[in-house]
Amino acid sequence: MKLFQRITVKVGSNVLTRRDGTLDVTRMSALVDQIAELHKQGTEIILVSSGAVASGRSEVRPARKLDSVDQRQLFSAVGQAKLINRYYELFREHGIAVGQVLTMKESFGTRRHYLNQKNCMTVMLENGVIPIVNENDTISVSELMFTDNDELSGLIASMMDAQALIILSNIDGIYDGPPSEPASQVIREIGQGKDLSAYIQASKSSFGRGGMLTKTHIARKVADEGISVIIANGKRDNILTDLVTHPDTTLCTRFVPAPQPVSSVKKWIAHSEGFAKGEIHINRCATEVLYSDKAVSILPVGITDIRGEFEKDDIVRIVDFEGRAVGVGKANCDSAQARESMGKHGKKPVVHYDYLYIE
Ligand code: GLU
């Protein structure tokens, strides 16, 4: 029985690179074999692959000392070409076509851009093509970059309505203590709403930008949208096929998904925090209602302040009476209209429940 119809697989730089920073083609080839097997069984796969910067590093010797932005731009330009070329060759041996999708944070900012990307990958999947996604490191602007490819893979899994997101790193999962200590064990399952901050190691991986902190944050968020999230070791043989065919006996950390999948538009909003154009401040009463289990909209009567300028359909941040950012939503009107109705009874919601995401 097929557990998942559509999955997103994220492969980190540390899985694809050897200790000396060169591309580990043997590992890549083993992963491609497994993806090809799942693809042949009818599972749709979107691959989010890091490794551009790491594989470019070994190709060029810069003529002068480069700063970190120049290095990233140069290495990723060269390395992405090398990476996708390898994938192309490896998948071709299985008779599978792949397509390259290079994206940036801005490309998720408006609903139109978002749907355009979704459409691009949908048409690829419909035609049996495996999308291979990476951030367009060469031209993305540092301040506006994804934290790392974990964040990107969360967005992709969510956007593509995948049933599972598998994050492959070079450790077996999330440990209940320092991974270097023999007594530490991999946490096999993380239930909803469990606070993990005590377990997480803040150290980063050596070749990628990510770390366990962002992985956990993203994993929780994506699982809350109804998608299974699995963190596992991409260096283990047959890890992907094992995870998909017998997940219960394969070593990994699994985040239990919310029972109700979240609507597609809410998923977009949930990942749009970075694009908020303005803020809606709400009073204590509205804050309390928001945290009750009821489905509520942001009504003008509970609003105390509107900050910034926004248009209808822009993303706005919701700030509670104590100044905490508590969520994001899609504005139902522009900022001038919101100011006009602020504090008044019987007016249309400024953010409708269907377009509201509370953290
Ligand atoms: N996009 C980067 C690369 O391909 C990786 C970012 C990350 O480390 O997550 O090299």
Quick rundown:
This protein has 359 residues and is α/β, with parallel strands linked by helices. Helices cover 33% and strands 18% of the residues. The strands form two sheets. Strands 3-4-2-1-5-7-8-6 form an eight-stranded mixed β-sheet, sandwiched between helices. It has a five-stranded mixed β-sheet with strand order 10-9-11-12-13, sandwiched between helices.
Name a few traits of the molecule.
eight-stranded mixed sheet; binds glutamic acid; 359 residues; alpha/beta
**Poorly predicted sequence stretches spanning 5 or more consecutive residues:** none
The computed structural class is alpha/beta
Instruction: Summarize the biggest pleated sheet.
Output: 8 strands, mixed
Distance between the termini: 35 Å
Beta-strand portion reads 15-25%
How many DSSP H or I helices?
A: 11
Mean pLDDT, all residues: 90
Give the names of the bound compounds: glutamic acid
Principal-axes geometry comes out as globular
Order of H and E elements? EHHEHHEHEHEEHEHEHEHEEEHE
Trace the largest sheet across and list its strands.
3-4-2-1-5-7-8-6
- The helix content, as a percent range, equals 25-40%
What is the total tally of β strands? 13
Radius of gyration: 22 Å
Oligomer classification = single chain
